[in-house]
């Protein structure tokens, strides 16, 4: 009897997990019943945010190269500044918005919009600009013809150099946030539409739990 009692808790823990996987499977089947236009928007909408993040990285890299008078390693510095922000923004959006919606874990429209807006402004704008700084510090140390400051004034120098860029990209950050909010809002509408499809054999409220 004692051995049987010890085996019971794991089986009781497996039931919620099975229910979770079953809910995800049901939601996925419902998603596939949506119109193709809704499916395409849900799946491909985040690419716009990621592309803008990539563009922001290229702009930040170009700004630092111009300010520091760096002409070498143009391709080697531009490629990572285009690819890394794109991947980071897309993965962040998938993990914080898309997947939680498709698994039924993000039922709050406001939460979806806030998450999407933050991904757009932070991962899709602020992060690429910050990422460009250490990359170009390394390039400047090696290639720049402009005299660089000593260790005593280095922090102040880089803050001064970066300030104009961050002022310029603040507008882009707002645009990215607005785009993210729009994507989050539309995707949540698609999620609600998915739950209201006819012929559903489960209570939509149960799938939201």
Automatic annotation (TrEMBL):
Where is it chiefly localized? mitochondrion
> Which BP terms in the Gene Ontology apply to this protein?
mitochondrial respiratory chain complex I assembly
Record's keyword annotation contains Mitochondrion: yes
Transmembrane regions listed in the UniProt entry: 47-64, 73-93
Naming one, the record's GO cellular component terms include: mitochondrial membrane
Q: Which UniProt keywords apply?
A: Membrane, Mitochondrion, Transmembrane, Transmembrane helix
Q: How does it sit in the membrane?
A: Multi-pass membrane protein
Q: Which Pfam families match?
A: TMEM126
Instruction: Tell where it localizes.
Output: Mitochondrion membrane
Indicate yes or no for the key word Membrane.
Answer: yes
Q: Which domain of life is it from?
A: Eukaryota
Query: What is the protein name stated in its UniProt record?
Result: Transmembrane protein 126A
From which organism does this entry originate?
Sphenodon punctatus
